[in-house]
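Ops channel
N.P.: pipeline sanity check, posting one input/output pair.
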């Protein structure tokens, strides 16, 4: 990398020693833009001050149909309406929100995500408006190795393109889809785990030798091979 650009990183379980370089998607895929939090704040301010487009065009961008706008979506923070958008890829992301009446821009860029960005932005707004804010606990739930060992194995499902291999290293459970790299999962309960801040979850039933994978509206049950 050059020109001050940063690589993306992912946590492979545990402390800082487990951080590793993540997969890099080329910015041309999905028409990604490379920017900074400061530049995003300048951009959305200029957009709403009509330095870039007309008021009619801005109104069209703010018009919501089927839950989507033309590049802009509304957010409600502290009882106020903000406009902006979010995005990202791999394990990095960005969030921009603008309150036009107060000309307030909230801009955030992140790498090595381990905490929901939406919660961070909401907390920033609460702090700005002197609203009650409680610093979240970031401690992970510790599951004993004896319990984790019950989940270790290879799980398959008829029609699924890949099997899932589940392994344990110390107090951390690792899941590997097919031949891809194994990834550490975060425990939310003794039998429940997540990755990507809860976008994908795994629930184990040791008695039935099953793993329930939830990603989107269709949960899938995988069975441990004997």
């Amino acid at each position: 990398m050059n020109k001050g650009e940063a690589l993306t990183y992912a946590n492979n379980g545990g402390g800082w020693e487990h951080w590793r370089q993540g997969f890099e998607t080329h910015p041309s895929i999905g028409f990604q833009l490379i920017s900074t939090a400061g530049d995003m704040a300048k951009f959305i301010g200029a957009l709403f001050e009509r330095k870039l487009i007309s008021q009619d065009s801005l109104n069209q961008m703010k018009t919501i149909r089927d839950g989507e706008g033309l590049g802009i979506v509304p957010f409600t923070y502290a009882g106020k309406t903000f406009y902006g958008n979010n995005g990202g890829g791999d394990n990095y992301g960005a969030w921009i929100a603008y309150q036009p009446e107060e000309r307030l821009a909230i801009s955030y860029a992140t790498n090595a995500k381990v905490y929901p960005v939406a919660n961070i932005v909401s907390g920033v707004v609460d702090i700005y408006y002197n609203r009650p804010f409680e610093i979240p606990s970031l401690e992970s739930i510790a599951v004993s190795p004896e319990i984790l060992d019950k989940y270790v194995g290879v799980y398959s499902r008829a029609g699924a393109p890949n099997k899932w291999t589940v392994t344990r290293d110390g107090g951390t459970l690792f899941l590997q889809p097919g031949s891809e790299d194994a990834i550490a999962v975060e425990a939310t309960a003794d039998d429940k785990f997540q990755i990507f801040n809860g976008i994908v979850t795994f629930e184990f039933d040791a008695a039935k030798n099953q793993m329930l994978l939830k990603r989107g509206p269709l949960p899938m049950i995988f069975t441990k091979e004997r």
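N.P.: looks fine end to end. Residues 145-224 form a domain with the Lipocalin fold (CATH 2.40.128.50).
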